[in-house]
Structures are given as C-alpha cells and as structure tokens.
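Question (not urgent): is this output format expected?
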Amino acid sequence: MKKFLVTLLLSMCLFMNQALAANAESVLNSAQLTPTLTGFEPCDRIVTYYLNRITTPEMSTAAKVQACYDWLVVHCSYGDNINRLPYVEEAYGPGRAAGMLEGYVGACDDYSCAFAAMTRALGLNCYTVYGQTSRADGGYTGHIWCVIKVDGVEYVFDPQVEDNIARGSDIQYYRFCKTYDEVRENYIPQRIESDYFTPLY
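Got this back:
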C-alpha cells in the first residue's frame, strides 16, 4: 500500500509539472513581442552574443525564455559581481546585466537584470521588482526578481532563487512563469525597481 501511495504521489507531481509547463508555454507563446535593446552597447553586445548561442529562430518564445532562465541558473552563481563595477555609473541596470553575463557571478539584482535584458531583447515586457521573498529558514528578506507582463497579468521569474533551490541539481521551475497567486507565500512585491528595468508598456 505504501509503495502504491508513493507511486501515485510521484505520478500526480509529474502530471502537475507537465500541466504547469504547458501553462507557461501557452502564456509566453501568446505574448505580443516588441524586441527592445537597452541602448547600452556593452550590455546589448553580450546579450546578442548569448541569445545567438542559446536560441534559434525556430524555437518558440517559451523555449527561448526557458533557455535564458536555464543559462543563468546553470552557469551563474551567487556572489559579489566585480565585473559590473566599470559599467554602473554609465547604465546601472544594463551594467549589472553585462557584468553578470561576463563574470557569471552576482546577487539577485544581477540575475534579474541579466534575465530582463535577455528577455526584453526577445521582445517580452520584462521588468524588475523589489520586495520581500521568503527565506528557507523562515521569515522574509529584501529581494529583487523579474516580472513578465502578458495580457495584463504579471508572471514572476526568479533565476537567482531557482539557482539557490536547484543547488547544482535539476531545475524544477518553482519560480518560472508563476502568477503572484501561485507564489503568494513566497513574494511580497513592494515596487517596480526603477533603477534597473521598468515596464516597456
């Protein structure tokens, strides 16, 4: 009986993950696209370089967004991003994005700025939000994450927390294309982080 219940639970989890993946795919593939670069050459150059490496024209929008998210989770790590410092005075958000993509190390700001710069180049209305996120040991802490707005609905994307959850294992997409209702226990949005990336429209 115990083995049956475990098998049933695993089957239900797999079904739910597939359903959630299908929802994310439907949402992202329905988005109106307006490709937008930052106008900051060091950032736009490296964003274009990586998009050309990790995406193809044949890929769906959802697959391209997932490729950006996966690249950040797999290749980057949390820490001080010294590579962004020369860029900060010229272009704060794009400077953080460029530093993350060059140095593969950064804080939540850097993960979010890199993801925003990449997905905006794909054409999505992605911007950065400041607020509180839940801590593994209880309570909340200050944090910056991304939102992609599609048809008036905000969807949370948080590659830095996802990286922390995965810790080198498979990505589970707990913080990928979730409405605030789906992650209400994990996020308390307070404001759009205007120093970095604001809504395109």
